[in-house]
Amino acid sequence: MSSTKAAVIRECRPNLTAYEAVYKKIHANPELSHCESETASLIIQHLRGLSADFEIRAGIGGHGLIAILRNGTGKTVLLRADIDALPVAERTGLEYASLRRQIGSDGKETPVMHACGHDFHAVCLLIAAETLLRARQFWTGTLVFLFQPAEEAGDGALGMVNDGLYDSSRHNCPIPDIVLGQHVAPIRAGVVASKNGPIMSSSDSLKVTIFGRGGHGSMPHRCIDPVVIASHIVVRLQTIVSRVVPPDEVAVITVGSIHAGEAENVISDRVFFTVNIRTLDEQVRHTVLDHVRRTITSECEAGFCEKGPQIEHHMSLPVTVNSENAEKKLRQTFAQIFGHEFVVAPKSSLASEDFSILAGSIGKPYCFWLFGGIDQQLWDSLAAQGKLDTVPINHSPDFAPAIHPTLETGGDALVAAALTFLESSP
Questions:
Q1: Are residues 416 and 397 in the same domain?
Q2: What does the note accompanying the cofactor annotation read (predicted)?
Q3: Is residue 333 part of a domain?
Q4: Is pLDDT above 80 for 425?
């Protein structure tokens, strides 16, 4: 099969004009995490239009769904795409830009945008589904196309698993031998990048409340000022990276929000702030988390707080660590399919994913890779000027990947990856 994968893709890839229209529709109508009902319905409608051979099971962990394609005996391969969007106001100026506002699960209305490229992920997986459907004469086994909600909320994959994704008495998804996924990235369109070992970081988010004693701004000696205490904590947390984490390891600690009080002459009785921690090694992760908690608690004691801090660990995503054997096989395939457009990622990304939970929860290997979305002429022009740091990145209101060749690249990569682990047809 390895010598014919490129030929199979060329022969079986559908005309992408219809998929360009599907992409524009999804992009213009994004939905927040846990609110992806329209997107899921569109995907189901499209799959049913392709073939009745897809066994579709919906409503998994919210708006998650799977489409199963059986084709004789052999291995089971699961291909995953996430489908949710972000509370971002789009300013790309595209003719199909999102103007949508939506009430999220928190009850607040916000603008919504596919600022992370999940619209590409969904459409590329649909392209792969049709390609592999048309290519059934070239492979045997079982394919699972999984469309996951709520990746941005950090609980979508776990939600599907906990809702009985693999439970025979619930959704009965065939247990995969390998789980595969990808993410569009702010790199040159047409490029595919993989990496052995850690490719994306862990992410831990904390909500912290510091309790002081409020009062009049003119009488600080009668108060315990939580703003001062929180300020010491924010500064002190940065020394964990510089003085606790080994210099050859990676860790990032970000205090992303902080809030206290409403008036300048009132000392508040409490402060709320959020902390995000990213690491690439489990031992470093545990060390940093321990020191973050100790720092917060110690500064509260030093500030004479009458009540200890409240520390809520509200989101936790594991390190995404590619299987060595699986990544080695994929690297060979991608080099054959994409030639010089395939690259080995020089370093791990400090973005995070919940993708690995779909495999880790059942003890199966997985592999995750990146594919480029930045217009080639724009990329080359900015590279020549030394201005690649101005390229709009994921989560930016200006993030606007080029439709082509991004759709082709993402679809082809999924098909090539699936064929790598499926048995070739006799």
A1: yes
A2: The Mn(2+) ion enhances activity.
A3: no
A4: no
